[in-house]
Amino acid sequence: MPPTTAQDDTPIRQEIIDTCRAMNATGLNQGTSGNISVRAGEGLLITPSALPYDRMEPADIVWMDFDGRAEGHRAPSSEWRFHLDILRARPEVGAVVHAHPTACTTLAIMGRPIPAIHYMIAAAGGPDIRCAPYATFGTEALSHYALAALEGRSACLLAHHGMIATGATLARAFWLATEVEVLARQYLGCLPFGDPPLLPQEEIERVLARMAGYGHGD
What is the pTM of this model? Predict the structure, then answer.
């Protein structure tokens, strides 16, 4: 059973819904293709499958334990597996945002990681944002590939699919998802001129050291 009462976790459930609506309002996502999870006790709260965000209510958010058992009157997102696996494997992660933003997805279709074109690449934890190999949505294979692409990182692309961003809080994960999409747009803008010059590894390391705590003030 969920570790808190419905009344206790209603604010978290509402924050998930509000963030889903913000994803679509800002163009980070379209329709119901995105999904969000937040760590909750010995499990997670996750968006339900195929329910339009404008119809979503707090009771529609699904609680799952880390063995994959769901509690609620709706089915969890079809992508629940990688949400669960990320939160189980990465105790520092409190929330996962998955979306299909246009620039990130364009690069993911081409199998291109985002290199160190701008110092803000360090917001994702290193000198690049990797692109995980393709696997069918919702599968164990996709979860395996996503976890590997996220090693030492807090965001990745998914080939022919979209992107994942993580954070200690949902606000942080949403902020990072937005930043990654900006980097993807910048990279796409450079490519018609050829391969862009990249920042060296030592500069990214300096930025990482200065960036501790940078970002959303949460």
Answer: 0.94
Query: Is the Cα dihedral 71, 72, 74, 76 positive or negative?
Result: negative
Of residues 15, 57, 79, 202, which has the active-site annotation?
79
| Total of domains in the chain | 1
The parent domain of residue 41 ranges over 6-210
Is 179 exposed, middle or buried (CB count within 10 Å of its CB: 0-12, 13-18, 19+)? Answer: buried
* Structure tokens given for 218: 């949460």
Residue 202: active-site member: no
Which pLDDT does position 212 carry in this prediction? 80
Q: Taking the CB of residue 71, how many other CB atoms lie within 10 A of it?
A: 13
**Does the pLDDT value for residue 5 go beyond 50?**
no
Residue 121 lies in a domain: yes
199 in a structural domain: yes
Among residues 168, 149, 41, the alpha carbon closest in space to that of 93 is found at: 168
CA atoms within 13 A on the CB side of 40: 28
Q: Quick check: is 218 in a domain? A: no
What the block records as the tokens of 1 is: 């059973």
How does pLDDT run across 107-126, given as a tens digit for each residue?
Answer: 999 999 999 999 999 999 99
CATH number at residue 91: 3.40.225.10
The 10 Å Cβ neighbour count of residue 14 is 14
Q: In the prediction, which pLDDT does 218 show?
A: 52
Q: Classify residue 187: in a domain, yes or no.
A: yes
pLDDT at 162: 98
Question: What mean pLDDT do residues 83-105 have?
Answer: 98
